[in-house]
């Protein structure tokens, strides 16, 4: 017979749950304290599932969870919690809890369904379902234990209507993880809409999020719905949330607190039920301490916190990621030597998975037709820094930048001398166009080499170049679009 353990200090709750599950044919044991829990002989009394209240007068629910999972690792656990302790409930899920439910129990049918699903679910099939879903959205989990725990937690919280903050370095796949959460949720058939808070000006971002009425500002020739309205039943992903202005932060806080907003230039109040996912490559907690980000908004967004590890901390997954990116190019046979794979694994990857993807694309583009075997000598970063190499000093960075500038200038001078030696008449417009082209090339080279020197840290690179982070992104996007 299926056995369930109920741990709750409220006698009425224990009696209610006991009656509910005994009527379904389950064997139920109820304890009302940590002391009674410690008196259970777990070696002779196996449990298939347990419901643990996080707050007991004489015990911590997390401690009881650890003890139960240590004695009976296959016992599936549901944490019972109030809204104020949801963050703790998420921590419990990281420790092995299968799910959590908020008290008081407003929906008894949901409670029954959670327990029934828990008892009939198979651990192996559930893990396979998670991996299949991840692959479908392009999220490669691999063998890294931190990444596997992250995806398990993300899957567990996906079905809850709570805000999630995703942190991770540039290129680690924050938006892909957000899409995974959306697809694993009950909103998967609704819209998933993302917006980069750092790519738009304050006025444009405000209009994008909340919409505007006709005539709200110059150029507003017609009414436009905002993303909170369009994605009201779906998921809204705010990337680079740390870049949002103070004014936008205030408006976001109001929406999260009241679920209400108004279009720009309008007077009508709209309600939204969108599920909010936010991401940043900065330490938002540090931004709060530096007064760059509102503390109250931070706590509203950070109900569930997910930290994606950088690629250098999951190098065992690099071969699998390489294979995944190569599958994008059917008909092209490319293999990597053992030395090449080791070199790929020893490289730091400051641009993380995005940089690895671009590296594979470059290799495929330059490869000849037929079967090609890539060795370490073919790799563009052979001889450059690796995980164990020392960082560049300020003087060596300067030398590196100087070499890049010399290369572009010398090439341009050679081409210009060759061109003008063959002409008697000089077209001034053509000269100015070539100078402008040189300026663009030098700018691109300087930006890329500064990023190289700062290990992909765009904020630090922008500081060294004495431009804004937004200007840096614009120039990088311009580069991508013109090549």
UniProtKB/TrEMBL annotation:
Q: State the UniProt keywords alphabetically.
A: ATP-binding, Coiled coil, DNA-binding, Nucleotide-binding, Phosphoprotein, Transcription, Transcription regulation
Query: Which SUPFAM superfamilies does the entry mention?
Result: CheY-like, Homeodomain-like, P-loop containing nucleoside triphosphate hydrolases
Which segments does the entry list as coiled coil?
421-448
Q: Which residues form the Sigma-54 factor interaction domain?
A: 140-365
Entry annotated with the keyword Phosphoprotein: yes
What positions does the domain Response regulatory occupy?
Answer: 3-118
> Which GO molecular function, any one, fits this protein according to its record?
sequence-specific DNA binding
What is the protein name for this chain? Transcriptional regulator
- Gene3D superfamilies from the xrefs? 1.10.8.60, 3.40.50.2300, Homeodomain-like (1.10.10.60), P-loop containing nucleotide triphosphate hydrolases (3.40.50.300)
Q: Which GO terms describe its biological process?
A: phosphorelay signal transduction system; regulation of DNA-templated transcription
Alphabetized PROSITE patterns for the sequence:
RESPONSE_REGULATORY (PS50110), SIGMA54_INTERACT_1 (PS00675), SIGMA54_INTERACT_2 (PS00676), SIGMA54_INTERACT_3 (PS00688), SIGMA54_INTERACT_4 (PS50045)
Q: Which residues carry this modification: 4-aspartylphosphate?
A: 53
Query: What Pfam families does the database record attribute to this sequence?
Result: AAA_lid_14 (PF25601), HTH_8 (PF02954), Response_reg (PF00072), Sigma54_activat (PF00158)
